[in-house]
Amino acid sequence: MKNKSLLKFISPEVSRYKFINGNKNFVFLVNKRLKWMKKYTEKKSNILEFGSSNCLSKLVLGEKVVCTDILKNKFIDFTLDMNNLNIPRKFKKKYDVLIFNHCLHHSKNPLKVLKKISKEIIKKNGFILINEPETSFVFKIFLKVFNHERYDDDISNKKNKNFWYENNSTGKLLFANIKKNEKFLNDYKIIENDLSEFFIFLNCSGNGVNTPYIPMNYFFLKIIHFIDHLLVKFMPGIFALNRRIILKKIN
């Protein structure tokens, strides 16, 4: 029998409370993951986020973001299962920007999801903005210690049932060997493919879960962010905890 996770899962309401009421560690991380997206969303009106749950993207990027999740709650606009994309005709080829913020690894087959999105949802020259966990040495230890989800770096196992589902190595497996401006799935071009985060992730207090953390003000969080940048730049395989990918639809 699988051991119970040491992490305490929290509701979307609690997660939003942490953000709105100024848990600075958490606010800093959320802004770090979402604010860069404004470059792609500011002049666009049709933006959709998958796996949104707490819908913090509306608070950071604006009310025009359409929040979806597989489970209904009061923050999302409508339910949508990325593994069963039955899109009403009025939404097909409508969206300029799609957002996956640490949710693509919850799909049963991310390649099929991204292909179907290209065919049915996103406009030509539209963007897909992705944050995914990066299974560096430290993150693998974190997952094992807290028994939180799973990872499998061995792509030769992809034929195994549920290989992709909750596989925190999804971002690494899909994008680690693809450079900027290269094609992906023949439908997209890689605009950005960068690694980041270490202490600001580990000390954020958790998104969707509660974890122990040391409260900090924004001055020290900025210093920690700079230290993270150096650690990830010189030793990504040990310290990187987040991969940021920008895809542009070209076909």
Topology:
Layout: E1 8-9, H1 12-20, H2 24-34, H3 38-41, E2 47-50, H4 56-61, E3 65-69, E4 78-79, E5 95-101, H5 110-120, E6 122-133, H6 137-146, H7 170-175, E7 183-184, E8 188-196, H8 199-202, E9 209-210, H9 218-234, H10 236-239, E10 242-249
Parallel strand pairs: 2-3, 2-5, 3-4, 5-6
Antiparallel strand pairs: 1-9, 6-10, 7-8, 8-10
The main sheet comes to: 8 strands, mixed
Q: Which spans of ≥5 residues are poorly predicted at pLDDT below 50?
A: none
* Rg result: 17 Å
Q: Tally the structural domains.
A: 1
Oligomer: single chain
Structural overview:
This protein is of the alpha/beta class. The protein has one domain (8-17, 36-196, 239-249): Rossmann fold. 33% of the residues lie in helices and 21% in strands. The chain has ten helices and ten strands. The strands form two sheets. The protein has an eight-stranded mixed β-sheet. A two-stranded antiparallel ribbon has the order 1-9. The chain is globular and about 50 Å long. The termini are far apart. The model has no long low-confidence stretch (mean pLDDT 94).
Tag the structure with descriptive keywords.
251 residues, alpha/beta, Rossmann fold, eight-stranded mixed beta sheet, 10 helices, 10 strands, globular
Care to give the gist of this entry?
Helices cover 33% and strands 21% of the residues.
